[in-house]
Amino acid sequence: MNNKLKDKNIDDLFDAILCLETREECYAFFDDLCTVLELKSLSQRLQVAKMLSEHYVYNDIVAATGASTATISRVNRSLNYGADGYEIVFNRMKEKQKNE
Residue 86 CA to chain centroid, in angstroms? Predict the structure, then answer.
């Protein structure tokens, strides 16, 4: 993460998220924390990243998610040059699915 963003408030946010134990708790917390549009934007970016990592083309991603090409490009840049956060999450999600 960009060192300019690291501060106590963001640490507190991440600590709060790490305290959540169930999907229902996540729904409750994020419903309180985010607007519907903010939550939809976050979930859209995650789906875009998933589709890019599965080698979908931009046109298919636009059709499936409604994301703009600018959003897709931004997410693609994070996948290629970011902090590997998406990769961590996708690997853990795959591992969790295997164990279920």
Answer: 7
